[in-house]
Specification:
With about 110 residues, this protein is of the alpha+beta class. The chain contains three helices and three strands, in the order E-E-E-H-H-H. It has a domain of about 50 residues. It has a three-stranded antiparallel sheet, covered by helices on one side.
Amino acid sequence: MPYIKRNSSGRIVGISDEAESGTDEELDLENPEIQAYLEMARNQLLSSDAETIRVIEDLVDLLIEKKLILFTDLPPAAQEKLSERHRMRGDLGVLENLVVDEEDIL
């Protein structure tokens, strides 16, 4: 059973498989509190992954722009993925111009 670390409000802020300083109780993995904490942690990781992917794409674009690497130096699968993402972002850019924001109305 995992050991739970809680903040002063009683909210789970950490889970460990071993007793550590600050862990104060054991809960079953099926406990709804643990499931909610794990879901939140997964969502944070997915969000971070998406942001990291964009950083990597921008880094690759910069390296290509500065001619430190050639696009064709990348493996074919990476070339395809990057090309597809560039195309999708371009499509979204066109669509964003069609959306009217409240700021546009003012």
